[in-house]
Protein 1
Amino acid sequence: MKKDTKLTHTGRGEDWQLVNPPVARGSTILFKTLREFEENGRADRFTGLHYGLHGTQTAFALEEALTALEGSYRTALVPSGLAAITVALLACVKSGDHVLVVDCAYGPVRRFCELHLARLGVSATYFDPNIGSGIESLFRPETRAVLCEAPGSLTFEMQDIPAIAAVAHRHDAAVLLDNTWATPYFFDAMAHGVDLSIQAGTKYIGGHADVMIGSVAVREERWWKPLRDVIADYGYSVSPDDCYLALRGLRTLGARLRTHQANAIEVARWLEKRPEVARVLYPALPSDPGYAIWKRDFTGASGLFGVDLKAPSRPALEVFVDSLQLFGIGSSWGGFESLVVPAVFKRTASKSPFLHHAMRLHIGLEDPQDIIADLEQALNKMNQVK
Ligand SMILES: Cc1ncc(COP(=O)(O)O)c(C=O)c1O
């Protein structure tokens, strides 16, 4: 089955007669006899109905659909994208271990490593996204995981995932990838050597800016129990209402992403030609340093990219952003709407790719000509600021 067919036909759950699985709300699961209750207590708590904490039919349907799309052994759900990253890391380490984290990882990951992994006696080293197989020199005997995010969602550096995975596997370390930008629709993480594939489902999976959810797909059975135990032992549970929204969003992932891609490419090409733009950071553009890797490994690009804007001053930048009519000013991305935010990030192992004002645009599903007209009028207003 091709991905669009999987998105339509998997995760339909039991024979409900309805097209969509219903929202199965519940904490208590009832059993007919004492014996049945006790047998259920001895069975694998992550398969079938046991207790609301571990999911009900709505979660199972979403897990099944994500597993089909990821091509994974199984997929676990968590309440946010950040939780997906932290549980994936926790599943791989014990006290005394070491992890390698890409310098362009989602910002709060740094805080998690520095405050919480450190408290558990796990140390982290940050690496340059362009390191490729040179990552070998950073490995220690106790290195157990490598966390990548390709491209970085604020600075858009690609990473050579197959090269990094080859080294990591030689050192018996797991490869974790935050694949939120491309989603499994545009990048087959499992086929490129990723062991734990992370999604902030809050973005494109949900797709409508109305749900917080995350998922971790595992390539091999051996990662399943450590991961699922961490999630259960920390008490994480995802509400069936949120699973329902995510599954509903997932159905149209392919159709939405194709439009995000087409619109973003059109807008990015237009921006590249503007004198106010020093650079567009978008791996789908041939001018981008990550283009060759993107072209080799990915089958598409989503609607998020960076713009290095030569705004003459801070007031001029404010006029540009505040004049935009079709762009919301706000965090997160992956919904149907266009968004703009300044890109704020920390670097310790590599240089910032921005030289001027670092901005991030999410190109939504509006008509791209309207988006371009909106950017044009806002740039023109910016240019009038003295
Ligand atoms: C690349 C990436 N990963 C993870 C996250 C975290 O997801 P959530 O907001 O669902 O915690 C974000 C949020 O912006 C993100 O951009």
Protein 2
Amino acid sequence: MPTELLFRQDAYLKETAATVAAVNERGGIVLDRTVFYATGGGQPGDAGSLRRADGSEIAIGTTIYDPEDRSRVIHVPLEGQASPEPGETVTAVLDWEKRLKRMRVHTALHLLSVVLPYPVTGGSVGDADGRLDFDIPEGGLDKDEVAEKLNALVARHADVTERWITDAELDANPGLIKTMSVQPPRGSGRVRLVAIGDIDLQPCGGTHVRNTAEIGPLAVTAIEKKGKQNRRVRIALA
Ligand SMILES: [Zn+2]
């Protein structure tokens, strides 16, 4: 049975009741539903805890997709934790402070891809910082200038909205793809689009804040040269 990904519908959900679907041989816990974001798209899996009926807690260090069945989410406990029984009801509780920072950074990286409209070759989200790698033909990027443009976008207090679109709808609206900063993936039947006001539109499965105001002030901490045509731009919550 696939795990229901509640973080896809509501990134602000901090906890949920869930049933233990399975415990694998390495102690990984599969739930029928979860608020824990699983590692993907450059963003680390969530930490938190599973609260049992007796009030005790199983500390979760990270969350991943089951490599043998990617429709299932595995909550990876820290060492030495008790193991729940399949069928047991638990409350899955996020380390919300950590997640919210990652949501702020992740949404900020969307804005960075608008400030620097070049092909993105990689990226990652940390707990209070993040980076994108760009394929940029010439150097000469100015840290202060990038930071200024980034903070101007944050200050527009733009709403972040998400909607699903079918492959057929995409095909019927070729103009939509033209306005997207990233080409949507094909083949799964539907794509999740994330819009930041009229600033950015791209397919994304990640977790975002509701409004750019929540990102707060940003700093550009480094612009590094990674090969002839690659620049790594690092940002941080200021
Ligand atoms: Zn995103």
